[in-house]
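re: ur question from yesterday

yeah so i grabbed the chain u mentioned. its 293 aa long if i counted rite. heres the sequnce exactly as i have it in my notes:
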Amino acid sequence: MDGLKYIGKYFCGCPPQVVYHYVVETAPATGPTGVTGATGVTGATGVTGPTGVTGATGATGPTGVTGATGVTGATGVTGPTGVTGATGATGPTGATGPTGVTGPTGVTGATGVTGATGVTGATGVTGATGVTGPTGATGATGPTGATGATGPTGTVEAAQALSAYSVPSATVTDGQPLVFDRNAAVQGDAISHVNNSSDFTITQPGLYYASYNCSVSPATGTALPATNLLTLALNGSQLSNGACQHLFNATGQSAPMSASALFSVTNVPVTLTAVSSGGSFVYSDATMNVMKV
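ran it thru and got these structure tokens back, copy pasting raw so excuse formatting
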């Protein structure tokens, strides 16, 4: 074409189209434009050029909005039952439930036929003897027998006893025996006591009884409160059944004390005394009586 210069061609679009590139060449000295001529006849379409190279894939666009959920389809036909699985392990036994209410007693059944008599068992142990019955009536008195010969005259044992006492008041220290200054009565020779002595000597075996009584008060200087224990002793050993005691809380306090004991003498001679303990105490109006029984 006049005035057009062909530059080249390229492909664009999808599918790709051939585009021809021309430029218009300007005349050096153009006169006024003439009247546009009539449009010429369109030329025939050119041959389609070869397909251009596919361009790179564009970036993926954003995901579209999720469409509404479709209508649920009809339930399908139930499939065949599967094979039964193996039985699981048995679980632990549950706690026992509470015992139910006892039901009413059933009707008593008819008595069964009596069985045959069993073999006789062994004889049981003899039971305890029963209570003795009441004594029968006394029989008639029999005739009196002949008087027997008179036996020999027996001997009467002489009484053995001694009583001693103390006139003046006397202070007795802890663990010491009481002193009796004189005897009031002496019977026999089995028991002896020397005036102003604490010892009563027994020289015959046998059963003896001794008793004493006195008035006691704490001596000056004795720490109070103080408990006085007065005991009978045989050869220095206390007779547990011949003791008495008293608690003193104040100076000048006085109390009567007495005790007695029954004791057996096997080996002789033995010495009987009345022993004071618990501190120093003053004794007055003391009396000791000893006798063989």
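noticed a couple things. The longest strand covers residues 206-218. also DSSP finds no helices and 13 strands in the chain.
anyway ttyl
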